[in-house]
Amino acid sequence: RRGSGRKNAGVVSLGMGKISLLVGVGTLAAGVAWLRVWRRCRRRPWIDTADAVRVCSAYGIDESSGFAPPQCLARLPPAFSAWEDIAAELPALNRSGALRAAVDGMPLLDASNLRGVAEQRRAFLILGMMAHSYIH
After folding, report:
1. Separation CA 128–CA 124 (nearest Å)
2. Cα(122)–Cα(72) distance, integer angstroms
3. Residue 79: partners with Cβ closer than 8 Å, 6 or more residues away
4. Are 134 and 94 in contact (CB under 8 A)?
5. Partners of 12 in the β-ladder
6. Beta carbons of 56 and 62 less than 8 angstroms apart
7. Would you say 13 and 5 are in contact if contact means Cβ atoms under 8 Å apart?
């Protein structure tokens, strides 16, 4: 016998018997509770906007881009051209297997000569890519 189509509160009649569906009772209660908490949190932020801006600026976090800098430095100063040259040729050096020799032959540069956070971030990016490629 196919389902009779009779539907009662939470019970649907099917050919194999009755399957109890508690749709709406538990789910609705959980949804309403979550909505109440969400509305309360939205009205009372966990941190004041002024405090958030102060904390973000103290840790170098941009409001729009987060941990990524809003603008990246295109190139390091000429004193660090050895790093920039390897970075520019990194894909080719990886393919040819010549990266280790290029890094081993690179002159030792003093990172304390980097001026400002932008130069430090660019150097970190280049050295991180070189180290990753060197190891792998």
Report:
1. 6
2. 7
3. 109, 113
4. no
5. 7, 19
6. yes
7. yes
pTM: 0.56
Q: How far apart are CA 110 and CA 100, in angstroms?
A: 20
Sheet holding 7-8, edge to edge: 7-8, 11-14, 17-20
Confidence band for 19, pLDDT divided at 50, 70 and 90? very low
Instruction: Give Cα separations from 18 to 4, 10, 22 (angstroms).
Output: 10, 10, 13
Q: Are 13 and 3 in contact (CB under 8 A)?
A: yes
Q: Determine the angle formed by the axes of helices 116-135 and 81-88, rounding to 10 degrees.
A: 50
Query: How many angstroms separate the CA atoms of 53 and 37, rounded?
Result: 25
Question: Is residue 101 predicted with pLDDT exceeding 80?
Answer: yes
